[in-house]
Amino acid sequence: MSSALITGASSGVGYHYAVQLAERKYNLVIVSNELSINDVAAEISDKYKVTVWPLCLNLADTDAARRLFDYCQANSIEIEILICNAGIFFFKEFNDASDEVISTMTLLHVYTPTMLCKLFGNEMKKQHRGNILIMSSLSAWTPYPGISTYAVSKRYLKDFGRVYHHEMKHYGVGVTTICPGAINTGILPLNNRMRKIAMSLGVMSTPEKIAKKALHAMFRNRICVVPGLLNKIAVPIVMILPIWAIRGMLHKMLSNH
Fold it and tell me: How many CB atoms lie within 10 A of CB 167?
């Protein structure tokens, strides 16, 4: 039976990646720094009758990717699908953010997914099969004040994913990058009123829907996908909006959450 590895799988989009792949009868290695990952593993294993290996691991550790790879090698788990999903978000000017949160975000969004792709991608390359799904963001096109570190790290993932796609396609390995807009999860600190407005306008989606669209794109070997018509339209618009306008909107959305 084929196996998939999903980071950040204890909740949100990562949880739904795990569920939807279990529905397709993939065995799973699911990773999170939350102890609840064990409960998620038990739930999915019991419901879908697949093998689930839960790992509680801080993916912002510099050796996290190597430890994950070594675990799979030691347990003879061949990863056919790698989903680099784990991430954090904060809205704060760069110099006002703590050293710890900047370090965590950089490691989580840049270093660890890069090394996961290196380690597991090399094995897929040898086998001439496999798929890698990288979670970027619509904000990869909007490196504005308040979300500078987040947006730039997601820009890295978007650009890396596109280049890696072309490197790996010659070996029968697919690499797809998904760039969703706002997702209705706890990672985005919106108040309930703004969540309802965003959902009603269609600029925010559910994690279940994003996971479904991302997996569909991955299995079709798409290069880079922006889910949702409004988000596709938004990309060229936000690129020409002045910084003061974006900053004002972000402050309004994320204040008093």
Answer: 12
Q: What angle do CA 7, 11, 111 make, to 5 degrees?
A: 30
pTM metric for this prediction: 0.87
* Residue spans per domain, the chain: 3-254
What is 3-254's CATH number?
3.40.50.720
Provide the 3-class DSSP secondary structure of residue 114.
Answer: helix
Per-residue pLDDT of the chain (257 residues; tens, 9 = 90+): 689 999 999 999 999 999 999 999 999 999 999 999 999 999 999 999 999 999 999 999 999 999 999 999 999 999 999 999 999 888 777 888 889 999 999 999 999 999 999 999 999 999 999 999 999 998 888 767 778 899 899 999 999 999 999 999 999 999 999 999 777 676 665 666 665 655 555 566 789 999 999 999 999 999 999 986 666 666 666 666 666 666 666 565 555 44
